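[step 3/7] fold_predict: job queued, chain A
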Amino acid sequence: MLSKFEIRKHIEEFLDQKGLPGYDSLVALCNEASSVLETEDSSYRIPDSAGGPGGLLDFTSAKYKDLPTIVVPDLHARGYFILDLLDFIVPDYGESVLQLLIEKKLIVCCVGDIFHAEARGRDRWNMAYEDFCAYFYDGEDPSRFSESQAMLEEMREDLSLLEVLFFLKTTFPGNFHILKGNHENIKNATYEPGVNLDFGNRGFRKFCEEGIMCSEFVRIFYDDVLLHCISGFEMALPLCAVFKNCVVSHAEPAKVFSRDDIVNGLASDDVVFGLTWTANDTVSGNTVDGTMKNLYKGGLLSVLNNPLKTSVWIAGHRPVPDVYLTRQGGRFIQIHNPEREYVSLVRYGKKFNPDSDIYDVCPNR
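[step 4/7] structure written:
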């Protein structure tokens, strides 16, 4: 195991590089992280019906259930968020997140959405879009887009963060986890039954055409091989994690899912879409309670522990105006504020309270 100093130094080097990552190192890091995902320990990543890594992480066994969990909302190219998180001194534990990861005394669960800066990058996206349109629609030389300063800066942030996450996943395979979000779609694919296997994916745009812009940039600046490497990593990410006191996914569950639905969900458009794309206030019925009952009923916890009394469902996906929003009778807690660095600390044996258990890992930023 690398020392705390060495790990932090690697991460700083990823984030401080002036240009884009080198091709060979990026491919190597991606392949290593993908290999970790595809061979994860079945004691927490439940195999699907084909024997491969499933869509569910289950940390309710005796081996993991006592560990505190930090839930990290949508990252959106904010590599400094991860560095601040690793330096954060965890309340009641007296050590940094990084030190607790090294000691295997903590689980970090990121809800996904690695790429695409949000409102803070709006002006940059608009400038990059002009260069993209000149190349993609007006037929100018590809260099107009691949050498666009606005797009280069966006992709530097996106890819350096991706390097950091590759590195952390391979360094802490059982304690650092990333779930699939709706932005984990580097190919900007849209699922078509019988045509492709891009389950749950939909082409993405927000301020301009961010989805195809990132896809086309990687293809031009690097090549199709890297595009497919990153896509393979994205498609191997789990969809949902269940802990003693909480369940985590990228978005609010769109319907009640069974445990088997989620375990086998990576091959289901309905499940992937239903855990990554749900818009606010579109859910009918109490999908959180229904899905939680299914997860805990078939899980590793004894029913005598009755985790449903204390558990909440935490997700991100859509921005919140302050610290958090709740729905479904307070059982669903949404935590993604793109202007701040809020994380949720879920402790063993203590019901999560969003008013006291959400922390800003960099309050002065």
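[step 5/7] annotate
The first strand starts at residue 45 and ends at 47.
The chain has a mean pLDDT of 95.
exit 0
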